[in-house]
Amino acid sequence: MRAAQLVEPGVFEVRDVSIPQPAAGEVLIRVAGAGLCGSDVHLVAMKERLFSLPMTLGHETAGWVEKIGEGVAGLELKQPVLIAGIWGCGRCRPCVEGHENACQYWATRMPVPLGPGLGFPGGMAEFMVAPARTLFPLGDLDPVEAAPLGDAGVTPCHAINLVRRHLRADVTVAVIGVGGLGHLALQLLRATTACRIVAVDNDAARLALAKGYGADETVLSDEHAVETFNQLTRGLGVEVVFDFVGASPTLTLANTIVATSGAVVVVGLAGGTMTVVADSPPHGLPKWGVELIRPYGATSRDIYEVIGLAQRKKLKADIERHPLDEAPAVLAALKAGKVKGRAVLIPPR
Ligand SMILES: [Zn+2]
Ligand SMILES: [Zn+2]
After folding, report:
1. How far is the CA of 318 from the centre of ligand 1 (A)?
2. Pair 72, 94 in one domain
3. Which residues are within 5 Å of ligand 2 (an ion), measured at CB?
């Protein structure tokens, strides 16, 4: 079968590999589609060998049950499923509570909990094997359209759920970065809160799409952005800022526009630095009482919530479809900021 693999640091190629077979407790999935994520760009660019290579990438995948391993109950052949992007040990306390994104087994062994395309063979292939526990039924959703929900949908959902107590109807929230995760974050906020939602991006073309995803206001991230937020919030600031970029300029913006007792939620991994100045005003930063949260991945509960919202047509990834064989070119386009919404790789049928 064809599989898009990180062969060695910096080398990403589509190659022929053998079809895997499910062991006890596992399921073979015929892949419908696999989303390409900003973290795949990071993985390919990384100089270190974090994982043993070659490794098939793809941590947001959906497909159909093709073959069921021994001892697996509750799944049927041909059933469409979403594959979780993080595979904990399944036995530690966070894992049994559905928080495989905080698995204690991996916490002491790896810098990140492993998953498909992050240590295990991922979904950018014709077939993949997954532990039965990590499969979530999609019902009547199209698995090609649903694939990006596996990361770009569930990661913002988790981030939003962590600050749910802030999200009252009278507050303003900001979403920085209207990309793969950001465009779904806007829809999630629209569907699950009554907050005023402000989208921020440095690309006017992306920003033009934001109202269609649920934003009430848009702010171009330029030298006037802080002043615009002051006007929008009568100088109070924004209750929660979600930063889906994570570069120093976006972190600085978040740190500046967050309201007293608000929260900054940093999801993006662009390698930026955020400064905390432990001093009184006017020098202190951020304002008093501000929480900083750095969420990772999602819980099982978040995954069910995202699938439920998609089934009720409250959440839909904006996708562009590409043949799996074009994976390296699509990765380059994503890196160059040329992908709107999410690119999904479709294996040959
Ligand atoms: Zn990702
Ligand atoms: Zn665990």
Report:
1. 16
2. yes
3. 88-89, 92, 95, 103, 105
Write down the pTM of the prediction: 0.96
The reported pLDDT for the residue numbered 282 is 87
Dig out the tokens for 51 from the structure.
Answer: 């994982």
212 and 316 share a domain? no
- Any idea which ligand is nearest the CA of 96? 2
Residues of the chain with pLDDT under 70: none
Q: What are the pLDDT digits (tens) for 9-54?
A: 999 999 999 999 999 999 999 999 999 999 999 999 999 998 999 9
Pure H helices in 140-291: 143-146, 154-162, 182-192, 204-213, 225-232, 248-257
- For residue 131, the ligand closest to its alpha carbon is 2
Number of domains forming the structure of the chain: 2
Ligand 2 centroid – CA 2 distance (Å): 31
Distances (CA, A) of 270 to 41, 251, 334, 336: 11, 10, 14, 14
Name the closest ligand to CA 268. Answer: 1
pLDDT at 340 (0 to 100): 84
Question: Are 80 and 110 contained in the same domain?
Answer: yes
Q: Which domain does 254 fall in, by range?
A: 155-293
Q: What distance, in Å, lies between the first and last C-alpha atoms of the chain?
A: 10
Name the closest ligand to CA 267.
1
Asked if 140 and 11 sit in the same domain, the reply is: yes
